[in-house]
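Why ABC transporter ATP-binding protein? Reviewers of the renewal asked for a concrete example.
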Amino acid sequence: MATALAKAAEGAESVEHAARIQHVSKSFTGPAGSQLVLDDITLDVAPGEFVTLLGASGCGKSTLLNLVAGLDEPSAGTIATDGRPSLMFQEHALFPWLTAGKNIELALKLGGVPKPERRPRAEELLELVRLKGSYGKRVHELSGGMRQRVALARALAQDSRLLLMDEPFAALDAITRDVLHDELTRIWAETGLSVLFVTHNVREAVRLAQRVVLLSSRPGRVAREWTVDIPQPRRIEDAPVAELSLEITEVLRGEISRHGQQ
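Here is what the prediction returned.
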């Protein structure tokens, strides 16, 4: 694709880090006082790298993603990214009164893309996520998986080199999720984007990533990292995926047990 998506691949080698998280901590103050959610997180994401953040519920994964996205500020430490990241949530957050194409065009408009260029770019992005011909469909006409594809296309429309994904497939059935794993892997390979993907599903983490980063239970700290050397394409039921998932699960269980959580 000779568009901004191709630029991401072209520019991937020109920077040292897509994201650099250095000694980041985050506390929230509530009725019970200050609560430390993240403690001294240091993590780099290389240009073009796919990293999954894994951990038990409440360990601060989404909080860290929000900090990287610039939606909140750390209590301590620094975060630097290669440009402004794009963010994809668990819910598609599409505007139901707009068509699939118009939802994408809105992101293009906010990004300063001239009006005559928006529809061709939106249609190109829909084709990238394998929804060619769906420009005029309303949100209620789309299945759950199709809505998440449109949400992904809208995130890609933001012309970012770093894509942040917060459990985007968690609400989908297993078959649809597996199909979207394949699609995301393909798009990542085609575009050269860097991806930081939050999940609590160990097999999903191993299925997708080049590197899995495990956060401890609250306060979240980097407990361990794994480099995933299993060649793509992978299937979630592949023996090497299952074997590494079992190893990571045992470490995760130990972290949960050590912190007294169920």
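The CA atoms of residues 130 and 149 lie 8 Å apart. This is the kind of structural detail the renewal will allow us to pursue systematically.
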